[in-house]
Amino acid sequence: MKRDIYVTQPFLPPLQEFMPYLERIWDSKVLTNCGPFHHQFEEALCAYLDVKHIALFSNATIALITALQALRIGGEVITTPYSFVATTHSLLWNGIKPVFVDIDTRTLNINPARIEAAITPQTTAILPVHCYGHPCDVDAIQKIADTYNLKVIYDAAHAFGVECHCGSVLNHGDLSVLSFHATKVFNTFEGGAIICPDAKTKARIDQLKNFGHAGETNVVATGINGKMSEFNAALGLLQLKHIDAALVKRAQIDAAYRDGLRGVPGITCLGDAGESKRNFAYFPILVDPAYPLARDALNDWLKTQGIHPRRYFYPLISEFPMYRGLPSAGRALLPVATKASSEILCLPIYPDLDMATVARVIELIAHPHTQG
Ligand SMILES: *Cc1c(COP(=O)(O)O)cnc(C)c1O
């Protein structure tokens, strides 16, 4: 019997390589509260990602909530409906009103040309997402933010290691938030981080992720517990040794899909970005009316063959009950996002996916219902 193939499979280093790290934790009995592995992992990540300061977190959702707190964001924040729900949940957790604007047809990231019309006197920030790790139009977004004196926080959960025209995409905006969840390109089981531009901002964020403690006897903010444990930090250090090899394998799968699906009518592969360094986190395709099956029918057909793609992102965030009553959530206002969410399918991609399976997925898509 053939094994079922899912959209992703967590990437793990060889277990025996992790044992020395665990022995050090067991010997030192330092389990958390920013111990030696936490410190080392922050330094190693700064070097790998080419960023100045980083604050590790237990996950990206708490990091997003804390990033908004650190910059004292309130009122309204302009964001995208085409993302994972944690993006906007972080706004609601801060009592902020999300304002959705439509996305760009090519990148499926927030469309900068739609942002200006959504700005009101209550607007304090923009929360874009580098969807699938494809960079947002960071220059256009920054220009609007400068003109209207808004902060920019990037949900960079998909964008580990991604570079755009001027180096790491993580250096754009006021803060960027990474996720190291099991399903992401780079994982620490659970984990996240905030990229900070300066030491002062990092110090405030470090305070906020540790209950607002400032020294042994002083508490200066209503902080939360967002600290990454030594276990996760140690795993992260080890994962960093393997990430480049993992990205090479992802790139090979990406290239094979692009090659194999070229010329299949009704199938568009997203994100064939020229000059930027990509991380091949996802392999999103659009299934349009020129394809013989509707997107959901293709999804069902692949499942009968043991292949389990995912409809990231369907439904849109703006369709969920806590968001759909917002004035900006109407489908008519979000035509590009609505269409994309009805056509999107993310195909399996992960370092251990073998090329024979990739070839089989291509074959099944190119010739639906004709294969055994
Ligand atoms: C995964 C993800 C998050 C949440 O990350 P966690 O580390 O699981 O909290 C936030 N935003 C986007 C776009 C994501 O894909």
Describe the model:
- It is a single chain.
- This protein has helices spanning 15-28, 36-49, 60-70, 86-92, 112-115, 138-148, 199-208, 230-261, 295-304, 335-343, 355-366, and strands at residues 5-6, 53-57, 76-79, 97-100, 123-127, 151-155, 163-164, 167-168, 175-179, 192-196, 267-269, 283-287, 307-308, 344-347.
- It has 372 residues and is of the alpha/beta class.
- It has two domains: 15-240, Aspartate Aminotransferase, domain 2 (3-Layer(aba) Sandwich); 243-366, Aspartate Aminotransferase, domain 1 (Alpha-Beta Complex).
- Helix 6 links the parallel strand 5 (123-127) and strand 6 (151-155).
- Helix 1 packs antiparallel against helix 8.
- The longest helix has 32 residues, at 230-261.
- It is globular and about 70 Å long.
- Bound molecules: pyridoxal-5'-phosphate.
- Pyridoxal-5'-phosphate binds at residues 59-61, 83-84, 86-87, 129, 155, 157-158, 179, 181, 192.
Overview features:
2 domains; alpha/beta; Aspartate Aminotransferase, domain 1; Aspartate Aminotransferase, domain 2; binds pyridoxal-5'-phosphate; 14 strands; seven-stranded mixed β-sheet; 372 residues; three-stranded antiparallel β-sheet
Could you give me the name of the CATH homologous superfamily of the largest domain?
Answer: Type I PLP-dependent aspartate aminotransferase-like (Major domain)
Associated small molecules: pyridoxal-5'-phosphate
- Work out the helicity level: 25-40%
Could you describe the largest sheet, including whether it forms a barrel? Answer: 7 strands, mixed
Q: What is the architecture of the largest domain at the second tier of CATH? A: 3-Layer(aba) Sandwich
Specify Rg, calculated over alpha carbons.
Answer: 21 Å
- The gross shape turns out to be globular
The ordered string of helix (H) and strand (E) elements is: EHHEHEHEHEHEEEEEHHEEHEHEH
Mean pLDDT: 96
What is the CA-CA span between the terminal residues? 13 Å
CATH topology of the largest domain: Aspartate Aminotransferase, domain 2
